[in-house]
Every structure is written in C-alpha cells, then in structure tokens.
C-alpha cells in the first residue's frame, strides 16, 4: 500500500528530518515538497544524500490551492506561518502540523501520541506537541494520572540543542561562536510552550497547574532535549518507576530507566526516555525526560501520529535504533 505524502517546510530542520523518516517508511511515498526560499530547487540540492528516487523532486512554492493528489501533508513551518495556509488545504488531505499554530485549537487533536494514541484514530487534523512539552509530559503523565504528584507548583528546568531553533535565523545566539562553550537561559517566565504544558497537566491530573515554572537553556550540542522536573509528592523512586512502567507497558517508544537519561540515548530516534528520583521525607519528586528535539520532539512524533491516523502500525518507519556515539 502506498500512501501519498507531502512536506511543506522541507528545507528546514523539522521538514528535513520528516523527509529522512519518510524516505525509509514502508508505506509513505513522498510526492510533494514545498517551501518559500527553496522553491525551484531539487531535493538533491538541499540534501545531497537523499535516495536517488527522491533526488529529482522539485520544491514547489507553498500554495495550498495547488496540491497534487495527497493523503497526508506534514507542515513544518515557522510557528505563526501555518494556520492561514493549512486552513485552505482540502478536507480530504490529512494534516500533521509540526509547528505551534494548532495546539489546543478547536478542530485539531493534540498529538501526544505515547499518552493518548487511541485518540488519534480517525483524526484528520493533528497538532504535534512542542519539543519541550513532549519531553516533559511523557515524564509527568504517569505520575499525574496516578496521583503521585500534585499538579501545582511544578518546576521544569530544560536544556536543548541548538537545532531546536531551526535552520533559519540570523540571531548570533545560535551561531557557532555564540553557542560553542556557552550556556544560555532564555524565554524566562513566558515561553510559548507553557500554555500547552499547563493545559495537558490539567487534563492528566484533573487539577490546576497553578505556579508552573519553565526555564529552557541552550546547550552547545546539535540535537537533544533534557528536562529535569521538580514536583511535590509523597512517593518513592520505586513507586514512580513502577507506575511509569505500567503506564507505558504497551507503548513502543517510551523507555523507563532507573538511571538518569542522557540526550544521546535518543539521538536520531523517536524514543522518549523517562526516569525518576523521589524522597517522601522531603515531599520531593524529580522526574526526568529526554527526547531528540527533531525526533520525538518534531518529525518522529509527526510520523507516529500520521501512522496512527492512517491506521498503520504506529512504529512503521520509526524502528531504527538511535545514533551512537
Ligand atoms: N527545530 C526543532 O527542534 C523543532 C521545531 N518545531 C517547530 O517546527 C516548525 C519548523 O521548525 P524548523 O524546521 O526548526 O524551522 P526551520 O527554520 O529550520 O525551517 C523553516 C521552514 O519553513 C519554510 N518556510 C518559512 N516561511 C515559509 C512560507 N512563508 N511559506 C512556505 N514555507 C516557509 C522554510 O522554507 P524555505 O527554506 O523554502 O524558505 C523552511 O523549510 C516551527 O514551527 C518550529 O517551532 C517543533 C519542534 C521541534
Ligand atoms: C532552541 C529553541 O529556540 N527551541 C525552540 C523550541 C522549538 C519548538 O518546539 O517550537 P514550536 O513550539 O514553535 O514548535 C524554542 O524554545 O522556542
């Protein structure tokens, strides 16, 4: 069976990773690529290592009225740039939006695929979670659903590789000289990912996510997100690990580890690692989560969601092991 897919934003980091995954997918056939500045270029010019059967595909100027026959469209456009165009895509084309325009927007399912896979079946519009939210929420979901922690006053300390900022952008923070041998906090108090994290914490717990704190830091590495989360709860490390192992028992992509996870464990994969340390005497739970920001944080989860909405095994095209070292 061949499912015809397209990618708009293919020249970017998220779109390029989607291209890489689709190139190795057993059912998806890439028939359409689109963008803005890269329009007119062949894929081999953007990605010299692309498989020969895709090399000659020419990037089209993004125009939702000029789509070929498509089953699924992956959108990987700058947040703020996808809503208007995607609203004009014919209803018969399923969409997975990797950007941030449709998270918790009416008519769009929030694609936290490892937590609510059954809710993806039958959807035609899926909003992929952000990279920090998926690392965070996959770690917190078992504890919130199992009432092991309080939903209020959660503190998330996050680290991200530079590719999280995308390929574009002239900001010198993301240049080699600006990022190498350097650590930079940013987005304090008001990062755009806070609303989707708060909403999902409330969905999972049934309580209020008041007092949420989230501080990301840029780290001089290419890929990877690590979140270290502090919460209140009267539980033990073993209870947290057991609860998470049960919660994710049937899930293909979440690994519960008794060692603190490392970003390289996930590189190039759709895996999500979670671990915990808890001290009931201090009413303290530390939850940790790791993803590849371009894998589970973007294109990997987008392909997982596309598999789910197309009725394929959710692991199709995503079974490769991470890159190591
Ligand atoms: N990088 C990451 O780790 C993650 C990114 N995301 C989200 O995914 C989205 C894409 O991010 P990322 O790949 O990093 O960004 P990049 O800057 O690397 O790529 C942006 C892409 O958007 C295209 N584009 C920009 N403006 C237009 C336009 N007006 N019309 C058509 N295409 C356009 C560019 O095409 P062209 O070159 O042809 O102009 C390019 O392919 C963003 O919303 C981002 O927040 C989500 C999770 C993680
Ligand atoms: C390093 C860096 O800048 N990372 C981005 C995260 C990318 C992402 O997930 O963004 P969307 O919500 O727009 O999809 C950020 O902090 O905004």
TrEMBL record:
Q: Which UniProt keywords apply?
A: Amino-acid biosynthesis, Arginine biosynthesis, Cytoplasm, NADP, Oxidoreductase
Record bears the keyword Cytoplasm:
yes
Entries under InterPro entries matching the protein: AGPR, AGPR_dimerisation_dom, AGPR_type-1, NAD(P)-bd_dom_sf, Semialdehyde_DH_NAD-bd
| Pathway assignment | Amino-acid biosynthesis; L-arginine biosynthesis; N(2)-acetyl-L-ornithine from L-glutamate: step 3/4
Which reactions does this protein catalyse? N-acetyl-L-glutamate 5-semialdehyde + phosphate + NADP(+) = N-acetyl-L-glutamyl 5-phosphate + NADPH + H(+)
Location of the active site: 131
Catalytic activity, EC: 1.2.1.38
In which compartments does the protein localize? Cytoplasm
Any one GO MF term held by the record is: N-acetyl-gamma-glutamyl-phosphate reductase activity
Q: Which residues form the Semialdehyde dehydrogenase NAD-binding domain?
A: 4-123
Enzyme class, UniProt record, top EC level: oxidoreductase
**Family, similarity comment:** Belongs to the NAGSA dehydrogenase family. Type 1 subfamily.
The record's section on NCBIfam families has: argC
Q: What is this protein called?
A: N-acetyl-gamma-glutamyl-phosphate reductase
Provenance organism: Pararhodobacter zhoushanensis
């Amino acid at each position: 069976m061949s499912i015809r897919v397209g990618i708009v934003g293919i020249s970017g980091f998220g779109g390029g990773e989607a291209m890489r995954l689709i190139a190795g997918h057993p059912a998806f056939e890439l028939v359409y690529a689109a963008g803005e500045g890269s329009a007119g270029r062949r894929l081999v010019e953007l990605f010299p290592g692309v498989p020969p059967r895709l090399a000659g595909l020419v990037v089209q100027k993004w125009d939702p009225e000029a789509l070929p026959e498509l089953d699924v469209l992956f959108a990987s456009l700058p947040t703020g740039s996808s809503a208007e165009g995607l609203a004009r895509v014919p209803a018969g084309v399923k969409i997975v939006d990797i950007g941030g325009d449709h998270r918790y927007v009416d008519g769009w399912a929030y694609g936290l695929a490892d937590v609510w896979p059954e809710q993806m079946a039958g959807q035609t519009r899926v909003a992929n979670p952000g990279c920090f939210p998926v690392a965070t929420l996959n770690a917190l979901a078992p504890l919130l659903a199992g009432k092991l922690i309080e939903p209020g006053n959660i503190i998330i300390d996050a680290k991200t590789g530079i590719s999280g900022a995308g390929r574009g952008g002239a900001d010198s923070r993301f240049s080699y000289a600006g990022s190498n041998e350097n650590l930079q906090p940013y987005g304090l108090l008001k990062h755009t990912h806070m609303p989707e994290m708060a909403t999902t914490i409330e969905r999972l717990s049934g309580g209020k996510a008041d007092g949420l704190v989230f501080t990301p830091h840029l780290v001089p590495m290419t890929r990877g997100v690590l979140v270290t989360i502090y919460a209140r709860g009267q539980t033990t490390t073993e209870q947290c690990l057991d609860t998470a192992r049960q919660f994710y028992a049937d899930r293909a992509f979440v690994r519960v580890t008794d060692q603190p996870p490392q970003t390289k464990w996930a590189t190039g994969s759709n895996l999500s690692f979670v671990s915990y340390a808890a001290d009931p005497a201090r009413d303290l739970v530390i939850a940790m989560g790791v993803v590849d920001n371009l894998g589970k944080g973007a294109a990997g989860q987008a392909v997982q969601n596309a598999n789910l909405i197309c009725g394929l095994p959710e692991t199709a095209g995503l079974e490769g092991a991470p890159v190591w070292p």
